[in-house]
From TrEMBL:
<protein>
    <submittedName>
        <fullName>DNA-binding protein</fullName>
    </submittedName>
</protein>
<dbReference type="InterPro" id="IPR002878">
    <property type="entry name" value="ChsH2_C"/>
</dbReference>
<dbReference type="InterPro" id="IPR039569">
    <property type="entry name" value="FAS1-like_DH_region"/>
</dbReference>
<dbReference type="Pfam" id="PF13452">
    <property type="entry name" value="FAS1_DH_region"/>
</dbReference>
<dbReference type="InterPro" id="IPR012340">
    <property type="entry name" value="NA-bd_OB-fold"/>
</dbReference>
<dbReference type="GO" id="GO:0003677">
    <property type="term" value="F:DNA binding"/>
</dbReference>
<feature type="domain" description="FAS1-like dehydratase">
    <location>
        <begin position="14"/>
        <end position="160"/>
    </location>
</feature>
<keyword id="KW-0238">DNA-binding</keyword>
<feature type="domain" description="ChsH2 C-terminal OB-fold">
    <location>
        <begin position="235"/>
        <end position="296"/>
    </location>
</feature>
<dbReference type="InterPro" id="IPR029069">
    <property type="entry name" value="HotDog_dom_sf"/>
</dbReference>
<dbReference type="InterPro" id="IPR052513">
    <property type="entry name" value="Thioester_dehydratase-like"/>
</dbReference>
<dbReference type="Pfam" id="PF01796">
    <property type="entry name" value="OB_ChsH2_C"/>
</dbReference>
<dbReference type="Pfam" id="PF12172">
    <property type="entry name" value="zf-ChsH2"/>
</dbReference>
<dbReference type="InterPro" id="IPR022002">
    <property type="entry name" value="ChsH2_Znr"/>
</dbReference>
<feature type="domain" description="ChsH2 rubredoxin-like zinc ribbon">
    <location>
        <begin position="197"/>
        <end position="229"/>
    </location>
</feature>
Amino acid sequence: MSEQHSDWMAEARALIGHEYGRIYAWDAVNQPMIRQWCEALGVSNPLYLDGERARARFGAHVAPPTMLQAWVLAGIKGEFPAGSATDNPYQVLQIIERNGYASVVAVNSEQEYFRYLREGDRLSFTSQIESVSEEKTTGLGTGFFVTQLLNFFDQDDNKVGQMRFRLFKFRPAAVREKPALPARPQPGISDENRFFWDGLKAKKLLIQRCSACGTLRNPPGPACPSCHSMASDHVEASGKGTIYSYSVVHHPALPGLPQPNPVGLIELEEGVRLVAGLVGVATDNIRIGAPVALEFLDCANDLVLPVFRPLGGAA
């Protein structure tokens, strides 16, 4: 324990093991809540949904064990039934927070079950702080792991389960600035190719298609080279293809572009070709005929570009 933490952390550690008073459930274990919980979580086990089967095996309708904590939650208003203890089980967290560790994140929850809960059981629980770690530094920041132990009892004061709930109270690490998006040169956009650029913003690679004969063409143009029809629509490409040819651009150096800049002529599996950047590959490992897969590169000014990553050992 560092000297700067010694006084207040000693106060916090003094609360380890102290048992906080009994908290009672609002309602007894009941079939409607079991059914709704199972429906919400997609649980279809007939043991919990078929009352006759459960009664034949256990003498009563039973609840899924993982509902253990659900029966004793305070509810939206944060209030517990009359007779519940009013002492504060979160004193340790408040001490740590007052000393500069204001952020919190749940780490994990471990539950242990001693028997099935039956319809009509009325639960209660007590809690205690089981441990407070030494100061730790994580990717989130610097702080303390705090483990709370909850013990659950039935109406006869028999222990039916327990839960360890671990939190991390921390001072956030300095926020790293998000890298700026590359400021690429802007393309020339016209009425003929606007669909192509709009499609990229929607993470789709769209290829122009002749409405008359179905011929695909790229780059987009006003007329079909096969039948000369002026009517067209577009289809979404799969994003799969091969490297038909390529070039590595060394000069000129343009803003937002890698140096050197590998550019491929990609033959899509739909049969058309597209000029696009190659990513994830060393320039001396590029191979004609290598299979590639489409990715989308987000750039500044809402520009999205198609790029292709070689597959199968070309990287």
